[in-house]
Amino acid sequence: MKKGEIVFLNGVTSAGKTSIVDAIQIKSDEFFYVVANDLFENTIGDNYLREDYWKYLSDAIIMMYHTAKLFSDHGKNVLIDGILVERPELKPHYEKVKDIFAGYPFYIVEVFCPLDICRQRNIERGDRTEDQSEWQNNIMAKDIQYNCTVNTHINSSEECADSIIKYLFDRSEV
Question: How far apart are CA 133 and CA 139, in angstroms?
Answer without folding.
Answer: 10
